[in-house]
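Question (not urgent): is this output format expected?
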Amino acid sequence: MRTTQHHRLLACLSDPMNQGVGGWVSLKVILALGIAQYGRVINDLREGKVKALNKRKYIIENKTHWAGSSRYSWFRLPSKEKQLTLNDI
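Got this back:
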């Protein structure tokens, strides 16, 4: 199976080296994966639009921090229990 941007992002958000599930991953790390349109990929995962992932919906949280005129963003997958609740709806 071909690795898609969706798969690469999920793997990054789940990787213990990147703080794993529940840990915050910086946008800089996500962009290093070669995912230029990260917003579209995150939205697809949130809305369950990825056929290769059985259209499963994912909760992906984000936070931002401003330092002067620079904005820093982080993303994470919350606990597995919270993810299961979303897909049972």
